[in-house]
Each structure stands twice: as C-alpha cells, then as structure tokens.
C-alpha cells in the first residue's frame, strides 16, 4: 500500500502549481501518490496537472465539472486516495525538501498515530521566510487550524466520517474534530514540513468581507456537538481564533468589525464553559459583549504604542548626540600607538584573516593590545581571554578614536572618522569569483541598494589591501579604485593552518565532530544566492549519501547569511556544521570539498585535496551576479577539479571515482598554482611584521 496520498485542490493557482507539484514529486521519500483535483479552474491548472500525470505515474488528475469549493474538492481527492496517510496541500504552497521522510520517521516512531501535527514556515510575496510560530509543546487544538500542517491516517479519516461543510473555513470542523477524536493519538513533529504562501492578492485570507463571518458558525457547530470536557479544551483556542480574525484587516473590514464582534460575543455567551474565566482583557470585553470596552482597549493600545515609539525615538536621538559629543572629544586625544582594533564579517565574531593576524600579533608583537568589535548578539562567540567592545557602544567609539591600527575583512560600523596616523588594513574575505565593488553596478539584482559612493568613501580609508593572489590584486585595484592604499601581496593568514598539519591534527578534528575512523568525509559548502531566500540545497542530501554508501559522511555547511543551521533531517551520514566556529577545521577534517561558487574553494586548494564543483544553476548565477571567469570551462587555472551540473552527475563522480581522477588532479594543480602562490603557512607573520614591526605608510 502507498504510504502517503497527497491531495491538492487546484483553483486559480496556475502561477504556483508547478512549484507545488515539483515539491511533492521530488521528495526523497517517494512512496506516495499525488492527486490533483481541478476544481473547474478557469486557468491552466488542469493542463499543468495533466502534464505531471503524463510523465509521472504517481500523479493523477481529477476534474470537477463545476466549481465545488476547496472543501468538496479535497473530499473528492480523499475518496480517491489509497495511501496509509492523507496529506492535504494547497496548490500555492510547498512541501519542504525531506518533509515526507521526516514525517514517515515520526509516524513510525509514534507507531502510526491517527494524526501527526508538524511545524510550518510562512513566506510572503517578497519571499521573506519566517517560522510558523506555533508552540507545538502545548495543546494541538491551539496550533494553526489548517489541513496542510498535519497528516491523517486514512482509515481514521473515513471511520470518523470527517468531511467538509459548504462555505468558508471548511477546514476548521474536520481539523479540530479529528484532534478531539484522536485524543492521545495525536503526535507532534517539531520540524517545518510545509511552506505556506501568503499571497499579495487572490487568496481568501487577503479578501476582506462578510464571508469570514462563517468562522463563528464553524465553531458553533463544533462546540454544540462537543461534550463538556471537549468544550473546555476547545473553547479557549476557538475564542483566540475569532479574536485574531477580528483584528486582521485582510479579513474583516473596518465597517464590519462591530458586527463580527457581536457574532463572536454570541458564541462566547452561548458556549463558555462554567467557571472558565476570560484570560485576556479582550476576551473579558467579549464575554461582557461590550464593544465600547473592546474598542477602548484598542485605542489605549494604539496610544501606548504611539507614546512608546515617540519615547524610543527621543531616547535614541539623545543617546546619539551624547555619543557624538564624546567621540569628538576622543578624536582630540592622541592615538594609542599600541592599540589595534579588529573586526570580521560585519561584527559577527572572531574569525577569518583578522583572527589569524590577531593570534600571530599576540605571539610576535605582544606590545600591541588587540580589541575586537562585535555585535551584542554575537558577543557569546568571542573566545575567553579576547578583549572586545560592542558596536555602537561608548567603548566602541572610544576605541575607534584612539586605535592606531584598524584591521577588518569587511567594514567597521557607524561611519567612523579615520584620523591622520591611523593605519587601516583591509584583509577582504575571499578571492573574487563573483563580481565585486564597482563591477556590481552591471548586476543590479545583487546590489540590494548598495551606495557605490559609500563603497568608494570606505575604500579611501584603506592604507593596505591584503591580496591572496595576483588575480585578486588586479580585481581589487579596478573595482575599489583609490590612490590611498597599497596592495599587500602576502597570502591569506587564515590559510596558514593548512600548512604543517599532520594525521594527528586531522584525527583530532574528526573526533571532535564525532566522525568514526575509516569514513570518507565530504564537506558540502555552497554559497548564498542573491536570488534565493533561505538555505535550499540543490541536491537531496539524504538520497545522495544513501547512494554513496555507509562509508561516506557529508558535513553540511550553509552560508552564514542563512542562519545558524541548515535545517537538516536527522541522518547518521549527515552532519550539520553550519554553526561550527572554524571552517578551517572542517576543511582539515574532509577528504574533498563539494561546493559551487564559494570562495572557500580557493582556500581549500592549499590542502591539495579534491575539489568538486556542483553547479546546477551556473547560468542563472552568472547572469544574476556575474563572474570573472568560467568555472565550468575545464581550462587549467579556471576549473578546480571534477564538475557536475545535476544530482545524478554528482553521485556518479563519487561512485565511479571521477572526483579524484588524474584529470581532476591536473586541474587542481593548475588552479592551486594560480590562486595560492603566496600561501605557505607564513602569511600572518608577514602581515604582522609589515603592519606592527616595520611601520606602514598612511594616508
């Protein structure tokens, strides 16, 4: 028997339907059937679903001759289903990668419960993705009332005669009734499995009107049929749902708010369990059926918010004035010749080239006091014994005013004034493959509002621009044009760690990562895309490692722009190392690097280990961001090793040995010669001697 029956009602979702159906049919867990019910949609929904049904035997199209509505369309799909479990997915939503595998594992762990509730994500029309916000540790009745954030055992669904009433909010009754009937048979999976789409227009949730009054009727139906214990459980989330809809201008017009309030108050008066006191002032006003009291709360809250915002603005202005006055005073004091201030990745912590320079300065120039700039949310990342200041604080401005040496791989916050006598070393944080600096003007999709005048103003503050190779020197000179700085062609200090390591060092790092002896370790580290929100690997990692076999372990490191973890499903051969403090350790632990366009490839070449380029969206990336050379050309000095442009090709490279072939080694050697000519394990020493021990020309 099929494990999952995914039912998708389709009406006026032609712009989203392909993405929805792809998200189902490309799941790593493939034991499913997909039933698309075309609810007499006037657009191309039926044609799209028909295409999928023709090319994938797991998909089928059911056509409804006249518009029935989302509820009846789902019921038709449920009647056609043969799977163990029903999953209802809207045609404009997405099933997240690995979702069905995670749901199946949870079902088995809970011995196939009647209902499994899971977490979800929300995305708006700007593709801003955020967590669904449900507290899954509480009563399941209080979770988002929807069909798409849970699966139902199919026999349970039919035995309980769960169905859909006509009209709006048709999912409220079957969802809450199933939750009540299942009792302890409701299991929970605290993992986002569905991405719910908030559309700008065209959806019911964004169409205000009296159709939303149906919600009160739905809860009346449920509460009237509930026994006393069920009513006690159901009543609080029902009232909370009604109040939430009341306050949503996308559902209830201002002119209809009083009438909707009366409907909600009637539900409260009729079905409130005896002895259950209102939990909030809003519910207290509802219990009293006092529209005046309710609106008074709203007006008071509006005034409170307005006053709080005004006070916050005033406080911020006063603080800024005080900071500026103190900073101006500090600028009149002399520079501290033994003070250096460091920053990395826009104040994210102690890392990259500045960290390697700081460590070497402690050894070779102990008279230099090093202070790091970090943000308040990243101060926990600062190692013990390392001095730091919080960006924007009084200590920060005092340090910036008096430090003689400034070292950063990005920029310092707040628009500081560089003083005569200060020496600013810009270390950068990678060899450029993608277009940088002024070259980005030709690729506006990736600029995100960059002020190129500010870029040039910042460049004019530099005295030294660290370069890892001649390619970088040439690019930096053109895209950051300024007479203020000199190129410091010393190699990358962060790469020093790759020289002089032995097997014991590798074994130590692997042990810290929990990797068993004898495993082949791959580091999968893709970069971010300007055109992609959130980490979405272009390979099904579970399917990939299972094809490679038990001898492989894949370390997965998402780009730091995407958060502290990669959101992986649990698998013994997958290790999420996104939050690991040192990428250098991950490189040492691995036998090969699998990446796309990340500058990590240039650093990894120092190790002279295989580099596999996995670039399924190369053309899209080149068009959106621009690149300085063709990574996939196969020419020595451009391509670092074996190349794959599809998941099938990637897996074949490792099963057939192409990842470490003589041809791949020849390409790697040429790539290393071009991009690692200065790296020899002593880059940090050269920088420290140049900066702190022999003097530097300043601008």
UniProtKB/TrEMBL annotation:
Localization per Swiss-Prot or TrEMBL: Cell membrane
Protein's UniProt keywords contain Zinc: no
Record's keyword terms, sorted: Cell membrane, Coiled coil, Membrane, Teichoic acid biosynthesis, Transferase
CDD domains membership: Glyco_tranf_GTA_type
Domain of life: Bacteria
Recorded family membership: Belongs to the CDP-glycerol glycerophosphotransferase family.
The Glycosyltransferase 2-like domain, residue ranges: 5-111
Gene3D superfamilies linked: 3.40.50.11820, 3.40.50.12580, Spore Coat Polysaccharide Biosynthesis Protein SpsA, Chain A
Gene Ontology biological process: teichoic acid biosynthetic process
GO (cellular component) term, any one: plasma membrane
Protein name as annotated: CDP-glycosylpolyol phosphate:glycosylpolyol glycosylpolyolphosphotransferase
Bilayer topology: Peripheral membrane protein
GO molecular function term, any single one: CDP-glycerol glycerophosphotransferase activity
Keyword Glycosyltransferase: no
Residues in coiled coil: 297-328
